[in-house]
Amino acid sequence: MAVDFTPAPEVAELAERTARFVRDTVIGVEETHDGVVPSEDVRRELQAGARAAGVFAPHASPEFGGHGLDMCGRAPVFEEAGYSLLGPLALNIAAPDEGNVHMLEQIATEEQKARYLAPLAAGDIRSCFAMTEPAPGAGSDPDALATTATRVDGGWRIDGRKWFITGADGAAFSIVMARTTGVPGDRGGATMFLVDAGNPGMTVGRHIPTLDESLYGGHLEVEFSDCRVGDDAVLGEVDQGYRYAQVRLGPARLTHCMRWLGIARRAQDIAVARASEREVFGSRLADLGMAQAMVADNEIDIHAARGLILRACWELDQGRNGGLEVSVAKTFTAEAVWRVVDRSLQLCGSLGVSGDVLLGRFLREVRPFRIYDGPSETHRWSIARRVVGRAGKAGR
After folding, report:
1. How high does pLDDT run on average in the chain?
2. Which domain holds residue 227?
3. Which intervals hold domain Acyl-CoA oxidase/dehydrogenase middle (predicted)?
4. In the chain, how many domains are there?
Protein backbone atom coordinates (compact mmCIF):
# COMPACT_ATOMS: atom_id res chain seq x y z
CA MET A 1 0.00 0.00 0.00
CA ALA A 2 1.37 3.41 -0.98
CA VAL A 3 1.78 5.81 1.94
CA ASP A 4 1.74 9.54 1.23
CA PHE A 5 2.35 11.85 4.17
CA THR A 6 1.65 15.03 2.18
CA PRO A 7 -1.06 16.85 4.14
CA ALA A 8 -4.39 17.43 2.46
CA PRO A 9 -4.82 21.01 1.16
CA GLU A 10 -7.23 21.93 3.95
CA VAL A 11 -4.80 20.61 6.57
CA ALA A 12 -1.87 22.47 5.03
CA GLU A 13 -3.94 25.66 5.00
CA LEU A 14 -4.91 25.18 8.65
CA ALA A 15 -1.25 24.61 9.55
CA GLU A 16 -0.28 27.83 7.76
CA ARG A 17 -2.96 29.80 9.58
CA THR A 18 -1.81 28.27 12.86
CA ALA A 19 1.77 29.29 12.13
CA ARG A 20 0.71 32.89 11.43
CA PHE A 21 -1.43 33.05 14.56
CA VAL A 22 1.38 31.70 16.74
CA ARG A 23 3.96 34.11 15.34
CA ASP A 24 1.70 37.18 15.24
CA THR A 25 -0.14 36.70 18.54
CA VAL A 26 1.09 33.94 20.81
CA ILE A 27 4.86 34.45 20.82
CA GLY A 28 4.49 38.01 22.10
CA VAL A 29 2.43 36.77 25.06
CA GLU A 30 4.91 33.93 25.63
CA GLU A 31 7.89 36.30 25.74
CA THR A 32 6.06 38.70 28.06
CA HIS A 33 5.37 35.93 30.57
CA ASP A 34 8.54 33.83 30.11
CA GLY A 35 6.55 30.96 28.64
CA VAL A 36 4.22 30.57 31.64
CA VAL A 37 0.53 31.55 31.52
CA PRO A 38 -0.10 33.61 34.67
CA SER A 39 -3.90 33.60 34.83
CA GLU A 40 -7.23 32.33 33.52
CA ASP A 41 -7.74 35.69 31.82
CA VAL A 42 -4.64 35.16 29.67
CA ARG A 43 -5.71 31.61 28.81
CA ARG A 44 -9.12 32.81 27.71
CA GLU A 45 -7.68 35.69 25.70
CA LEU A 46 -5.35 33.32 23.86
CA GLN A 47 -8.17 30.92 23.11
CA ALA A 48 -10.43 33.74 21.93
CA GLY A 49 -7.66 34.73 19.53
CA ALA A 50 -7.42 31.18 18.24
CA ARG A 51 -11.17 31.08 17.63
CA ALA A 52 -11.02 34.37 15.76
CA ALA A 53 -8.17 33.00 13.63
CA GLY A 54 -10.20 29.87 12.88
CA VAL A 55 -7.60 27.48 14.34
CA PHE A 56 -9.25 26.47 17.62
CA ALA A 57 -9.68 22.79 18.58
CA PRO A 58 -8.25 21.11 15.46
CA HIS A 59 -8.55 17.69 17.14
CA ALA A 60 -12.19 17.81 18.21
CA SER A 61 -14.94 16.67 15.87
CA PRO A 62 -17.07 19.31 14.11
CA GLU A 63 -19.95 18.27 16.39
CA PHE A 64 -17.97 19.78 19.26
CA GLY A 65 -16.69 22.82 17.43
CA GLY A 66 -13.42 21.43 16.07
CA HIS A 67 -11.86 20.56 12.73
CA GLY A 68 -12.02 16.78 13.17
CA LEU A 69 -8.44 16.06 12.07
CA ASP A 70 -7.16 12.48 12.11
CA MET A 71 -3.74 11.74 13.62
CA CYS A 72 -1.76 12.44 10.43
CA GLY A 73 -3.71 15.65 9.96
CA ARG A 74 -2.97 16.76 13.51
CA ALA A 75 0.79 16.37 13.09
CA PRO A 76 1.59 19.50 11.03
CA VAL A 77 -0.99 21.64 12.86
CA PHE A 78 0.15 20.60 16.33
CA GLU A 79 3.78 21.14 15.31
CA GLU A 80 2.99 24.70 14.27
CA ALA A 81 1.08 25.29 17.51
CA GLY A 82 4.06 23.92 19.45
CA TYR A 83 6.38 26.53 17.93
CA SER A 84 5.46 28.48 21.07
CA LEU A 85 5.14 27.03 24.56
CA LEU A 86 1.72 28.70 24.76
CA GLY A 87 0.48 27.75 21.29
CA PRO A 88 -1.06 24.43 22.37
CA LEU A 89 -2.97 26.10 25.21
CA ALA A 90 -4.25 28.75 22.81
CA LEU A 91 -5.61 26.09 20.43
CA ASN A 92 -6.97 24.02 23.35
CA ILE A 93 -4.67 21.12 22.43
CA ALA A 94 -2.44 21.20 25.51
CA ALA A 95 -2.09 18.24 27.84
CA PRO A 96 -4.11 16.89 29.55
CA ASP A 97 -7.24 18.38 27.98
CA GLU A 98 -6.33 17.35 24.43
CA GLY A 99 -5.98 13.68 25.37
CA ASN A 100 -9.12 13.78 27.48
CA VAL A 101 -11.14 15.23 24.59
CA HIS A 102 -9.88 12.43 22.36
CA MET A 103 -10.79 9.74 24.88
CA LEU A 104 -14.19 11.16 25.81
CA GLU A 105 -15.18 11.29 22.15
CA GLN A 106 -14.32 7.61 21.87
CA ILE A 107 -15.88 6.10 24.98
CA ALA A 108 -18.15 8.53 26.87
CA THR A 109 -21.93 8.12 26.90
CA GLU A 110 -24.05 10.78 25.23
CA GLU A 111 -24.92 12.21 28.64
CA GLN A 112 -21.24 12.32 29.62
CA LYS A 113 -20.34 14.00 26.34
CA ALA A 114 -22.91 16.71 26.94
CA ARG A 115 -21.81 17.26 30.53
CA TYR A 116 -18.03 16.98 30.19
CA LEU A 117 -16.84 16.81 26.58
CA ALA A 118 -18.78 19.70 25.07
CA PRO A 119 -17.57 22.38 27.55
CA LEU A 120 -14.05 20.90 27.58
CA ALA A 121 -13.73 20.99 23.78
CA ALA A 122 -15.06 24.56 23.82
CA GLY A 123 -12.41 25.66 26.33
CA ASP A 124 -15.07 26.66 28.86
CA ILE A 125 -13.57 24.30 31.46
CA ARG A 126 -10.36 22.34 32.03
CA SER A 127 -9.75 18.76 33.18
CA CYS A 128 -7.10 16.41 34.52
CA PHE A 129 -6.26 12.71 34.26
CA ALA A 130 -5.52 11.14 37.66
CA MET A 131 -3.56 7.93 37.20
CA THR A 132 -0.01 8.39 38.51
CA GLU A 133 0.56 7.61 42.20
CA PRO A 134 3.39 8.01 44.71
CA ALA A 135 5.70 4.98 44.90
CA PRO A 136 5.01 2.12 45.14
CA GLY A 137 1.82 2.95 43.25
CA ALA A 138 1.16 3.28 39.53
CA GLY A 139 3.79 5.08 37.49
CA SER A 140 5.83 3.50 34.72
CA ASP A 141 4.15 0.24 35.75
CA PRO A 142 0.38 0.86 35.62
CA ASP A 143 -0.31 -2.57 37.12
CA ALA A 144 0.92 -1.17 40.45
CA LEU A 145 -2.31 0.85 40.69
CA ALA A 146 -3.22 1.15 44.38
CA THR A 147 -6.17 3.56 44.39
CA THR A 148 -9.36 1.56 44.92
CA ALA A 149 -13.00 1.98 43.97
CA THR A 150 -15.42 -0.06 46.04
CA ARG A 151 -19.10 -0.61 45.33
CA VAL A 152 -21.45 1.09 47.79
CA ASP A 153 -25.16 1.84 47.79
CA GLY A 154 -25.88 4.08 44.82
CA GLY A 155 -22.44 3.93 43.27
CA TRP A 156 -18.78 3.80 44.25
CA ARG A 157 -16.33 4.93 46.96
CA ILE A 158 -12.86 5.95 45.72
CA ASP A 159 -9.87 5.93 48.09
CA GLY A 160 -6.22 6.60 47.28
CA ARG A 161 -3.47 9.13 46.64
CA LYS A 162 -2.45 10.50 43.27
CA TRP A 163 0.46 12.72 42.44
CA PHE A 164 1.91 14.60 39.49
CA ILE A 165 -1.63 15.20 38.22
CA THR A 166 -1.15 17.77 35.49
CA GLY A 167 -3.71 20.57 35.32
CA ALA A 168 -5.45 19.64 38.57
CA ASP A 169 -5.40 23.22 39.86
CA GLY A 170 -8.65 24.67 38.54
CA ALA A 171 -9.81 21.55 36.69
CA ALA A 172 -13.60 21.20 36.57
CA PHE A 173 -13.38 17.43 36.66
CA SER A 174 -10.90 14.60 36.90
CA ILE A 175 -10.78 11.29 35.07
CA VAL A 176 -9.63 8.96 37.85
CA MET A 177 -8.13 5.52 37.38
CA ALA A 178 -8.97 3.23 40.29
CA ARG A 179 -8.70 -0.50 40.94
CA THR A 180 -12.08 -2.25 41.05
CA THR A 181 -10.77 -5.83 41.21
CA GLY A 182 -7.52 -7.48 42.25
CA VAL A 183 -4.58 -6.05 44.15
CA PRO A 184 -1.59 -3.89 43.16
CA GLY A 185 0.56 -5.86 40.75
CA ASP A 186 -2.35 -7.67 39.13
CA ARG A 187 -2.93 -7.09 35.43
CA GLY A 188 -6.25 -5.47 34.63
CA GLY A 189 -9.00 -4.70 37.10
CA ALA A 190 -9.01 -0.90 36.69
CA THR A 191 -11.93 1.40 35.98
CA MET A 192 -12.12 5.07 34.99
CA PHE A 193 -14.37 7.45 36.90
CA LEU A 194 -15.46 11.03 36.23
CA VAL A 195 -15.15 13.03 39.46
CA ASP A 196 -16.37 16.61 39.61
CA ALA A 197 -14.37 19.34 41.28
CA GLY A 198 -15.89 20.13 44.63
CA ASN A 199 -16.60 16.51 45.47
CA PRO A 200 -16.02 16.50 49.25
CA GLY A 201 -14.04 13.26 48.99
CA MET A 202 -11.44 14.75 46.62
CA THR A 203 -8.75 17.11 47.89
CA VAL A 204 -6.44 18.91 45.48
CA GLY A 205 -3.17 19.40 47.34
CA ARG A 206 0.18 21.01 46.80
CA HIS A 207 1.86 22.03 43.57
CA ILE A 208 4.91 19.82 43.08
CA PRO A 209 7.96 21.95 42.20
CA THR A 210 9.27 20.82 38.79
CA LEU A 211 11.73 21.77 36.07
CA ASP A 212 8.88 22.55 33.70
CA GLU A 213 6.32 25.25 34.38
CA SER A 214 4.49 25.86 31.11
CA LEU A 215 1.77 23.19 31.46
CA TYR A 216 -1.17 25.19 32.74
CA GLY A 217 -2.61 24.11 36.08
CA GLY A 218 0.66 22.65 37.35
CA HIS A 219 1.48 19.14 38.59
CA LEU A 220 -0.31 18.42 41.85
CA GLU A 221 -1.03 15.89 44.55
CA VAL A 222 -4.66 14.78 44.76
CA GLU A 223 -6.19 12.79 47.62
CA PHE A 224 -9.34 10.66 47.41
CA SER A 225 -10.86 9.70 50.74
CA ASP A 226 -14.37 8.26 50.90
CA CYS A 227 -14.98 9.97 47.55
CA ARG A 228 -18.53 8.99 46.55
CA VAL A 229 -19.69 8.95 42.93
CA GLY A 230 -22.72 7.45 41.22
CA ASP A 231 -22.82 4.69 38.62
CA ASP A 232 -23.15 7.39 35.97
CA ALA A 233 -19.58 8.45 36.82
CA VAL A 234 -18.12 5.25 35.34
CA LEU A 235 -16.36 6.07 32.05
CA GLY A 236 -16.68 3.07 29.75
CA GLU A 237 -17.06 -0.36 31.32
CA VAL A 238 -16.05 -1.53 34.78
CA ASP A 239 -12.65 -3.28 34.89
CA GLN A 240 -11.78 -2.07 31.36
CA GLY A 241 -9.83 1.04 32.39
CA TYR A 242 -6.46 -0.13 31.09
CA ARG A 243 -7.93 -0.93 27.70
CA TYR A 244 -9.50 2.51 27.52
CA ALA A 245 -6.27 4.13 28.69
CA GLN A 246 -4.63 2.92 25.49
CA VAL A 247 -7.25 4.86 23.54
CA ARG A 248 -5.80 7.95 25.19
CA LEU A 249 -2.13 7.18 25.80
CA GLY A 250 -0.97 6.20 22.31
CA PRO A 251 -2.37 9.30 20.58
CA ALA A 252 -1.38 11.51 23.54
CA ARG A 253 2.23 10.36 23.32
CA LEU A 254 2.28 11.31 19.65
CA THR A 255 0.62 14.68 20.15
CA HIS A 256 3.23 15.46 22.81
CA CYS A 257 5.86 14.63 20.19
CA MET A 258 4.20 16.92 17.65
CA ARG A 259 4.07 19.85 20.05
CA TRP A 260 7.65 19.47 21.26
CA LEU A 261 8.87 19.16 17.68
CA GLY A 262 7.58 22.68 17.20
CA ILE A 263 9.78 23.90 20.05
CA ALA A 264 12.76 22.08 18.52
CA ARG A 265 12.18 23.98 15.28
CA ARG A 266 11.90 27.24 17.20
CA ALA A 267 15.20 26.56 18.97
CA GLN A 268 16.87 25.73 15.66
CA ASP A 269 15.56 28.95 14.12
CA ILE A 270 16.90 31.01 17.03
CA ALA A 271 20.30 29.33 16.78
CA VAL A 272 20.57 29.67 13.00
CA ALA A 273 19.65 33.36 13.17
CA ARG A 274 22.31 33.91 15.83
CA ALA A 275 24.96 31.92 13.98
CA SER A 276 24.24 33.85 10.78
CA GLU A 277 24.86 37.24 12.39
CA ARG A 278 27.49 36.46 15.04
CA GLU A 279 31.09 37.02 13.93
CA VAL A 280 33.93 35.21 15.70
CA PHE A 281 37.55 34.64 14.69
CA GLY A 282 37.11 36.70 11.56
CA SER A 283 34.06 34.93 10.12
CA ARG A 284 30.42 34.22 10.76
CA LEU A 285 29.73 31.51 13.30
CA ALA A 286 27.59 29.85 10.65
CA ASP A 287 30.65 29.44 8.42
CA LEU A 288 32.64 27.48 11.01
CA GLY A 289 32.65 23.71 10.64
CA MET A 290 31.74 22.77 14.20
CA ALA A 291 28.79 25.17 14.20
CA GLN A 292 27.67 23.81 10.83
CA ALA A 293 27.78 20.28 12.21
CA MET A 294 25.47 21.23 15.07
CA VAL A 295 23.04 22.95 12.72
CA ALA A 296 23.06 19.90 10.45
CA ASP A 297 22.57 17.47 13.34
CA ASN A 298 19.64 19.56 14.55
CA GLU A 299 18.03 19.37 11.13
CA ILE A 300 18.59 15.63 10.94
CA ASP A 301 16.94 15.12 14.33
CA ILE A 302 13.96 17.30 13.37
CA HIS A 303 13.37 15.51 10.07
CA ALA A 304 13.82 12.05 11.55
CA ALA A 305 11.44 12.79 14.43
CA ARG A 306 8.80 14.14 12.06
CA GLY A 307 9.03 11.03 9.90
CA LEU A 308 8.68 8.68 12.86
CA ILE A 309 5.72 10.64 14.22
CA LEU A 310 3.90 10.48 10.89
CA ARG A 311 4.62 6.78 10.52
CA ALA A 312 3.11 6.07 13.93
CA CYS A 313 0.15 8.36 13.22
CA TRP A 314 -0.55 6.47 10.01
CA GLU A 315 -0.67 3.19 11.92
CA LEU A 316 -3.26 4.60 14.32
CA ASP A 317 -5.28 6.10 11.48
CA GLN A 318 -5.46 2.64 9.91
CA GLY A 319 -7.11 1.39 13.10
CA ARG A 320 -4.06 -0.58 14.17
CA ASN A 321 -2.52 -0.77 17.64
CA GLY A 322 0.71 0.93 16.59
CA GLY A 323 2.34 0.19 19.95
CA LEU A 324 5.80 -0.40 18.54
CA GLU A 325 5.69 2.62 16.24
CA VAL A 326 4.39 4.89 19.00
CA SER A 327 7.13 3.79 21.41
CA VAL A 328 9.82 4.28 18.76
CA ALA A 329 8.52 7.75 17.86
CA LYS A 330 8.11 8.82 21.49
CA THR A 331 11.56 7.64 22.58
CA PHE A 332 13.40 9.11 19.61
CA THR A 333 11.52 12.42 19.61
CA ALA A 334 11.89 13.02 23.35
CA GLU A 335 15.64 12.58 23.08
CA ALA A 336 16.01 14.34 19.72
CA VAL A 337 14.14 17.43 20.91
CA TRP A 338 16.44 17.64 23.93
CA ARG A 339 19.49 17.38 21.65
CA VAL A 340 18.20 20.09 19.34
CA VAL A 341 17.45 22.54 22.14
CA ASP A 342 20.75 21.78 23.88
CA ARG A 343 22.80 22.28 20.70
CA SER A 344 20.88 25.47 19.92
CA LEU A 345 21.67 26.89 23.34
CA GLN A 346 25.32 25.94 22.86
CA LEU A 347 25.43 27.69 19.48
CA CYS A 348 24.06 30.86 21.05
CA GLY A 349 26.71 30.84 23.79
CA SER A 350 26.15 33.38 26.54
CA LEU A 351 23.01 34.64 24.80
CA GLY A 352 21.57 31.14 25.01
CA VAL A 353 22.24 30.95 28.74
CA SER A 354 20.73 34.38 29.31
CA GLY A 355 17.06 35.20 29.71
CA ASP A 356 17.12 37.38 26.59
CA VAL A 357 16.03 34.35 24.56
CA LEU A 358 13.86 31.51 25.82
CA LEU A 359 16.26 28.66 25.11
CA GLY A 360 16.91 28.10 28.81
CA ARG A 361 13.16 27.85 29.40
CA PHE A 362 12.83 25.46 26.45
CA LEU A 363 15.58 23.26 27.88
CA ARG A 364 13.81 23.00 31.23
CA GLU A 365 10.48 22.30 29.57
CA VAL A 366 11.63 19.53 27.22
CA ARG A 367 13.83 17.59 29.63
CA PRO A 368 10.94 15.96 31.53
CA PHE A 369 9.46 14.61 28.29
CA ARG A 370 12.01 11.80 28.48
CA ILE A 371 10.13 10.74 31.63
CA TYR A 372 6.53 11.84 31.00
CA ASP A 373 4.29 9.41 29.10
CA GLY A 374 6.67 6.58 29.91
CA PRO A 375 10.43 6.97 30.47
CA SER A 376 12.71 6.22 27.54
CA GLU A 377 13.93 3.13 29.37
CA THR A 378 10.40 1.73 29.69
CA HIS A 379 9.73 2.31 26.01
CA ARG A 380 13.03 0.66 25.07
CA TRP A 381 12.04 -2.36 27.15
CA SER A 382 8.69 -2.47 25.36
CA ILE A 383 10.32 -2.10 21.95
CA ALA A 384 12.82 -4.87 22.64
CA ARG A 385 10.11 -7.18 23.97
CA ARG A 386 8.02 -6.70 20.84
CA VAL A 387 10.97 -7.22 18.51
CA VAL A 388 12.17 -10.34 20.31
CA GLY A 389 8.63 -11.70 20.40
CA ARG A 390 8.24 -11.10 16.67
CA ALA A 391 11.51 -12.87 15.98
CA GLY A 392 10.37 -15.84 18.06
CA LYS A 393 7.14 -16.14 16.07
CA ALA A 394 9.05 -15.94 12.78
CA GLY A 395 11.36 -18.76 13.90
CA ARG A 396 8.56 -21.21 14.56
Report:
1. 96
2. 127-235
3. 128-210
4. 3
